[in-house]
Design brief:
Number of strands: 7
Shape: extended
Oligomer: single chain
Helix content: 55-70%
Structural class: mainly alpha
Strand content: under 5%
Largest sheet: 3 strands, antiparallel
Number of helices: 47
Distance between the termini: 72 Å
Strand order of the largest sheet: 3-5-4
Radius of gyration: 40 Å
């Protein structure tokens, strides 16, 4: 019922009188603060004279000090204001004007700073000097006050009145970012803070403090439940972190950290909010994990949208994401202390329930990678891609952290839902149950019994497993579990290889090409997963060999290596590495031709599904799968050793396929993931297998013993020893053909012992009675052993006395074997006898006489050859003539091959002038070549290779008139053949900056000439980029990577020049610098703070200045980068002592200040800007 007009007017007048009382309570802003206590006393007296008509407030204030009396007056005023009816605010205008609302906020600020903060423990909230604007009104610390809980509870009740008031203007005071955090801090101090009362204190006072604590706990939990969960969590995180900043800035005040009890209480409240159900349905949803992620992201440095009502996170600083994700994962995986309080028999169940609730929410985050949004029970705004990626990173980190702490429970809660599909495909010890069938199992093929895993399930499992293994420090539990279930992945890789080799139908070329690309992507993923498992599960060479042999199905070997890992975290020291075998009837088939495609499933993927067939032959036991099996092992060995996959003559240095090169990646970081001895160790174990195959022939030399071929499908399975012999022979032959120097052993003595034992057993078998079936087998084994020995002897060097002496021990047994073969008239081929004789000669001469066998020659692209931008490959030369006519070579230009068409007269004249010893003549010839290239004359078409070699050769000239014109010519050539020219120059730049260890650079005569040549290459590269103009961003990543390598060179001049080139790159790219801003900032920070050379630091400061060449702050530069760059330059300006470096730093700071002022402040008015122009369009 509406109030009558006279009564309503009366209420408005009374309410306005109450509102106006604040003018007497708050000190004036312009008044003097020389006597703050006296000023506060005057305010208290003035307020009580006008507001205390009954005298109750005056009696309460008697005997109180000034600060406490002022706080009681503030509480009295706020309680009166909060009782004003909400109907008064509907009269058309707001009850509080803008000035009154500011005074109201000032009143609440005085109450918080004088009535709450002085009674808080050290580290709880901000110091009073930083919270109160007027430092003169500081109140002395009263944390030892006996009745502080009662006083704080009185303030808290006043704040509760404000929050529950029906006036919007009062509710806003208790919103986040205003006084909500102070309200929560007050309640936490009352509810959980130490009482601090002595035993001699009155019992009644102690009872009152306890009652206040109980009431505060109820109010605190009610407040946290009423607030949006992410807001409550954000306030608790701020309170738990205390007042200590994560980044210590020079010159800042060191603040106290949060006390232990506060961190523990805030952690317990966060844990309760994490598992608190959301909603009032029968099955309420839990979204505590997502809310905590949103709260954490809102506290992390980044860009928050101002237009989104939910405050959508647009970007997060990628440099801080791993550390923040690890901190959040520690919260998720830590068991709260309140779960340990129940009885002992229920502790396990309570812990399981809590961790199950957390894991269920974490598993939902794994679906965010494809969904790109949170799927809550209520409709919420979509989260940004940056926050989605951060949530996925937190999920991965949490899974690893939990599995590290609780191995068995981690397998049950995390690994089983994520990669449990692979458990259906293997046979574990003691598992006699039938294999689990997929939920949507269909059997379209009569040869299939059931479907174990659909294509979607298998692809999802592979994606999750790849991401789990891609973290820098994976959990050992995750690695071991993935290794145990890795045999199906290896079989799938073999099946993909077999299908790709068999798919040769030319009728569907377009579809075949698309399918090949998709299959290649799946193959690369499987190679990356298996290689990661091979390199990270164990550091032992025996462990690596044991894993590969289990994948191949070979028996364990008895080999041992002298150099073993001594790491305490090695998995072999915990338990033996086991890999569960796959089901004998497992088969991987392509997707069904007719199937339902999910919206979230890409229909163009070339996936496979796992089925259980009715056939009784295992996948790897089929004869047609031997070739793909061997090819997969060769590909994997090349994958884990990409550097050694090149020939020794290579001057370059490639990057592993599964590593990303960044500014912080070093050769040591890349080398620790590689397995340089795995190929040699596997090859030695295959020799041992060949040796073991001869043992049963010596023990039971009967006609029935022999190596038999595989049986047909449906017959009795062949013996395991037969499969081992055939697979070892095929794999050893393939490794000899494909891997080359990778299989050279670290311990030649071990290889010599195996070869000597094998040759001795062959000699024993040949010297006895040989049956017809055994003779063929022995000759095949002899051929393979001689081929292996020929491989080793070809790589013997006369200077390596130790190695040649070891292989010289084989001379007696080789001589006896040759004599026995000739004496017993064993049917050996002529090639075998010649090879045996040549091996004896070479071993007797210690490698001085090389074998004259015919072999394929290889031609490698030289460092000064113009090549395509594709990866380096070893190109076999076809139809290489053993004898050919070589024309006279030219000392400066490449030789002209017979049959080449004649040169244009103008081009030929330039080449002739390049032979002249006079510098001006050669410089003029280079100018002529540059002009021809710039005009794209037809005589240069088809001669680019020769012109490039000439120009590249003259870069090493000492005269500037020559090499500057050569740089001009390279820039002109790069304008027409940009990809090939720029790729070649960058590769050569990288090779010279990081020479291959253990080798002398091929074109390096001295250190000075190397440095000069690097500088000339950098100038040529930057000149090409300048000529490209708007196309320069295409080569942004390649050039930055190359210059980053140059910034790590040992010479300061090269490092400074590389940073100067990056500066020029920034000026060229401008807005296109966005994707590489953080990498460039890393370069600036590292060299400006850690480099000992002043010239390099000067170049780094100049690079920082290149960010602010515009009039205003660039839009593409993230705010956190500007902040960090300002801090870095400011700190270095106080530390730097070199005047040249200090000058560049001050110039960068001045440019940053100029851009900031132009962006923040308006330009001052000038006479030119005040001119008014009047233009008449049609005067008549």
């Amino acid at each position: 019922m509406m109030l009558t007009c006279p009564l309503f007017s009366t209420l408005i007048a009374m309410s306005q009188a109450i509102v106006d009382l604040i003018t007497y309570l708050i000190p004036q802003a312009h008044s003097s603060t020389s006597n703050p206590s006296g000023e506060l006393a005057l305010c208290v007296q003035s307020y009580t004279e006008r507001a205390d008509q009954s005298g109750n407030l005056s009696r309460e204030l008697s005997g109180k000090d000034v600060h406490e009396a002022f706080c009681l007056c503030c509480i009295d005023y706020l309680e009166k204001v909060s009782r004003i009816s909400s109907e008064l605010a509907t009269s058309g205008d707001l009850l509080f004007s803008v000035a009154r609302e500011q005074q109201l906020r000032k009143c609440l600020e005085f109450l918080i700073c004088l009535g709450v903060y002085p009674m808080l423990d050290s580290g709880v909230g901000l110091p009073l000097s930083m919270r109160l604007d007027s430092a003169a009104y500081n109140c002395p610390n009263q944390s030892r006050c006996p009745d502080r809980c009662t006083k704080l509870l009185k303030v808290a009740r006043c704040l509760i009145f404000l929050r529950e008031s029906k006036l919007v203007q009062l509710n806003r005071l208790m919103s986040p970012g205003v006084f909500l955090g102070d309200f929560i801090t007050c309640l936490v101090q009352i509810a959980h803070g130490p009482v601090g009362l002595a035993p001699t204190v009155d019992g009644q006072l102690l009872s009152e403090q306890r009652k206040a604590s109980v009431e505060a706990r109820k109010q605190l939990w009610k407040l946290l439940c009423d607030l949006p969960r992410h807001v409550a969590m954000k306030e608790l995180l701020i309170l738990q972190g205390g007042t200590t900043g994560a980044v210590k800035v020079k010159g800042s005040v060191q603040l106290p950290s949060a006390p232990r009890w506060l961190q523990k209480i805030c952690g317990g409240l966060l844990s309760r909010l994490l598992v608190r159900p959301y909603g009032y349905t029968q099955a309420p949803a839990r979204s505590g994990v997502k809310d905590l992620l949103l709260a954490t992201a809102s506290l992390a440095p980044g860009v928050i949208s101002s237009t989104s009502p939910a405050g959508c996170i647009n970007s997060l600083d990628p440099r801080l994401q791993p550390a923040v994700a690890q901190a959040v994962a520690n919260i998720f995986t830590t068991t709260p202390s309140f779960l340990i309080k129940p009885a002992e028999q229920s502790v396990g169940l309570v812990k399981l329930d809590y961790n199950s609730a957390i894991s269920a929410q974490i598993l939902e985050l794994f679906a965010l990678k494809e969904q790109r949004q949170f799927n809550n029970s209520t409709d919420q705004n979509k989260m940004s891609d940056s926050l989605t990626q951060f949530a996925y990173l937190v999920a991965l980190t949490t899974a690893h952290e939990f599995c590290t702490r609780y191995a068995d429970l981690g397998k049950q809660l995390y690994l089983s839902p994520l990669i449990g599909v692979l458990r259906r495909l293997v046979i574990r010890p003691g598992d006699v149950s039938t294999p689990a069938v997929a939920e949507t199992s269909t059997v379209p093929d009569l040869t299939d019994e059931c479907e174990l895993a659909t294509a979607a399930e298998l692809r999802k499992t592979l994606d999750v497993l790849r991401d789990l293994l891609a973290v820098p420090t994976p959990s050992q539990t995750v690695l071991l579990e993935a290794l145990e279930l890795s045999q199906p992945l290896f079989c799938l890789l073999v099946q993909i290889k077999a299908d790709s080799d068999a798919d040769t139908n030319p009728e569907f070329s377009a579809e075949s090409s698309q399918s090949t690309n998709q299959t290649s992507s799946l193959k690369s993923m499987l190679l990356g997963i298996l290689s990661r498992l091979l390199s990270c599960v164990t550091e032992s060479r025996s462990g690596h060999l044991h894993i590969i042999r289990q994948w191949l199905g070979l028996p364990p070997t008895t080999l041992s290596f002298g150099t073993q890992s001594t790491s305490a975290t090695d998995a072999l020291e915990v338990r033996p590495l086991t890999i569960y075998p796959v089901h004998p009837r497992l088969k991987f088939r392509p997707p069904q031709l007719v199937r339902v495609i999910d919206d979230q499933e890409a229909s163009d993927r070339s996936d496979y599904r796992a089925v259980l067939t009715r056939e009784g032959v295992s996948l790897t036991d089929q004869p047609e799968m031997l070739a793909p099996l061997v090819s997969v092992i060769i590909d994997m060995l090349r994958f884990v050793n990409p550097r050694q996959a090149k020939l020794n003559e290579s001057n370059g240095q490639s990057v592993p396929h599964f590593l990303t090169v960044t500014t912080c990646t070093t050769d040591r970081d890349m080398a620790k993931h590689e397995l340089p001895t795995i190929s040699a160790d596997l090859f030695i174990s295959l020799i041992a297998d060949l040796n073991d195959n001869l043992r049963p022939l010596i023990q039971r030399p009967s006609p029935e013993v022999g190596i038999l071929p595989f049986n047909e499908v449906g017959d009795t399975p062949v013996e395991k020893s037969t499969k081992t012999a055939i697979l070892s022979s095929l794999l050893a032959a393939a490794m000899l053909d494909c891997l080359g120097d990778q299989i050279w052993p670290d311990e030649p003595e071990q290889v010599v012992n195996l070869l000597e034992m094998t040759l001795s057993r062959l000699y024993m078998l040949v010297s006895g009675r040989i049956e017809a079936e055994m003779e063929e087998f022995l000759l095949e084994t002899l051929s393979q052993i001689l081929g292996i020995l020929a491989f080793y002897t070809q790589r013997l060097k006369p200077g390596e006395t130790n190695v040649t002496d070891q292989f010289g021990r084989l001379l007696p047994i080789l001589s006896d074997l040759e004599t026995e073969i000739r004496a017993n008239s064993v049917v050996a081929s002529r090639a075998q006898l010649e090879l045996l004789h040549c091996l004896r000669v070479m071993l007797a001469t210690r490698g001085a006489v090389n074998l004259t066998d015919s072999k394929v020659d290889y031609v490698q692209l030289g460092p000064t050859a113009l090549k395509s931008p594709s990866p380096d490959r070893i190109i076999p030369e076809a139809n290489h003539n053993l004898i050919e006519e070589i024309p006279p070579s030219d000392s400066q230009t490449p030789s002209v091959v017979n049959g080449e068409e004649p040169l244009d007269p103008e081009l030929e004249e330039a080449f002739e002038q390049l032979k002249d010893p006079l510098v001006p003549v050669r410089g003029h010839a280079l100018i002529s070549l540059s002009r021809l290239l710039e005009s794209r004359h037809k005589c240069t078409i088809g001669k680019e290779e020769r012109i490039f070699q000439v120009l590249f050769h003259h870069l090493s000239d000492e005269d500037s008139y020559v090499y500057l014109n050569a740089i001009r010519g390279l820039a002109a050539l790069g304008h027409s053949l940009t990809d090939r020219t720029l790729s070649t120059l960058l590769d050569r730049f990288r090779q010279l900056c990081v020479p291959v260890s253990g080798k002398e650079p091929s074109q390096q005569t001295s250190q000075n000439s190397r440095v000069e040549f690097i500088l000339k290459l950098g100038e040529a590269v930057m000149r090409i980029l300048r000529d490209l103009g708007c196309m320069a961003p295409k080569y942004r990543t390649q050039v930055l990577h190359c210059m980053t390598v140059g910034s790590k060179d040992t010479e300061p001049l090269v490092r400074a020049a590389s940073l100067s080139n990056v500066t020029e790159l920034c000026r060229l790219l401008r807005h296109a610098m966005g994707p590489i801003v953080y990498e460039v900032f890393c370069l600036i920070e590292v060299h400006l703070t850690q480099d000992h050379s002043p010239s390099v630091r000067q170049a780094a400061a100049n690079l920082a200045r290149a960010f602010f060449l515009e009039e205003q702050l660039p839009d593409w530069l993230a705010p956190d980068v500007i902040r960090d760059l300002n801090r870095l330059l400011s700190n270095r300006s106080k530390i730097e002592r070199d005047p040249c470096v200090l000058e560049q730093i001050e110039a960068a700071l001045g440019q940053l200040d100029k851009c900031t002022r132009s962006s923040v402040f308006l330009k001052p008015l000038t006479p030119e800007s005040l001119l008014k122009e009047i233009r008449i369009s049609r005067p008549f």
